From TrEMBL:
Signal peptide: none annotated. This is N-acetylmuramic acid 6-phosphate etherase. It comes from Gottfriedia solisilvae. CDD domains: SIS_Etherase (cd05007). GO terms for biological process: amino sugar catabolic process; N-acetylmuramic acid catabolic process; peptidoglycan turnover. Residues 54-217 form the SIS domain. InterPro entries: Etherase_MurQ, Glucokinase_regulatory_CS, MURQ/GCKR, SIS_dom, SIS_dom_sf. Specifically catalyzes the cleavage of the D-lactyl ether substituent of MurNAc 6-phosphate, producing GlcNAc 6-phosphate and D-lactate.
């Protein structure tokens, strides 16, 4: 029942929200937001377990599929679409599915989240298989669309995970690894785009970033697989080469061009003192990890 969910309970600290001044509202929101990082920290071990499953899927050539409805679905899509420019991934590698289809990203599609079969159809549409991992996201932890998706993922042998904002959530029953971040009642009762949404965003940040680091998309703390799709990112690419190798701007620019604008290859060319083809071979031998090329 909804009344038993912490995300639906009234926050006694803000029972007079409509009488507060603007500054008081903002102060209350800020104070409540302080609970979010602590709630996330309490789930670090489960987040770690799920990240390891994502890395395992990636290494098998599988994909990470987020699935959710409303705010949860939008957050999954947001995390997915940021992966190609940040980590140079194929657009298929990390995907977000939302109840009601992509049009639901901007306009609510009423009733779509209540249909388990919609999730099954969406996952069949992308040919989900046993190499993939499906992570269901639901603040309430009870969304039928998400449950349907997790059930189908299990049927095809895909790995499964869940992210909810209530303890003992329904979706946790259908996931191999469940994350339950509980930041408490919202200042505006039931508005889970607030603390619940923030906690989900933090968890998804952790899952995608740590997983990409785990497959060699990062050297030191630098985005060495990023796509240089505009002037700003071309300049960032050159600065990354400079930071990774301690060369000057001119040298970084020269190797960036010689490496066909492949930042990771340019770094290896400088660090190992080899040509472009050899850099690619070394990266292949090192499973894409720049640091490993220094010893292979």
């Amino acid at each position: 029942m909804l009344e038993n969910l912490s995300t639906e309970k009234r926050n006694h600290k803000t029972s007079n929200l409509d009488e507060m001044t603007t500054k008081q509202i903002l102060t209350a929101m800020n104070e409540e937001d302080h609970s979010v990082p602590t709630a996330v920290r309490n789930e670090i071990e489960n987040i770690e377990s799920l990240v390891l499953k994502v890395i395992e899927s990636f290494k098998k050539g599988g994909r990470l599929i987020y699935i959710g409805a409303g705010t949860s679905g939008r957050l999954g899509i947001l995390d997915a679409v940021e992966c190609p420019p940040t980590f140079g991934t194929d657009t298929e590698m990390v995907q977000g599915l939302i109840a009601g289809g992509l049009k639901a990203f901007t306009v609510a599609v009423e009733g779509a989240e209540d249909r388990e079969d919609f999730a099954v159809n969406d996952l069949k549409e992308i040919s989900l298989d046993d190499k993939d991992i499906v992570i269901g996201i639901a603040a309430s932890g009870r969304t039928p669309y998400v449950i349907g998706g997790l059930k189908y993922a299990k049927e095809v042998g895909a790995s499964t995970g869940s992210v909810a904002c209530n303890k003992n959530s329904e979706i946790s029953k259908f996931a191999e690894v469940s994350i339950e971040v509980v930041p408490g009642p919202e200042i505006l009762t039931g508005s889970t785009r607030l603390k619940a949404g923030t906690s989900q965003k933090l968890v998804l940040n952790m899952i995608s970033t740590a997983s990409m680091i785990g497959i060699g998309k990062v050297y030191k703390n630098l985005m060495v697989d990023m796509q240089s799709t505009n002037i700003k990112l071309i300049e960032r690419s050159k600065r990354i080469i400079m930071e990774a190798t301690d060369v000057d701007y001119e040298t970084a620019s020269k190797y960036y061009e010689q490496a066909n604008k492949n930042v990771k290859a340019a770094i290896v060319m400088i660090l190992v003192q080899c040509n472009y083809d050899d850099a690619l071979d070394k990266l292949n031998e090192a499973d894409g990890f720049v640091r490993k090329t220094l010893t292979v």
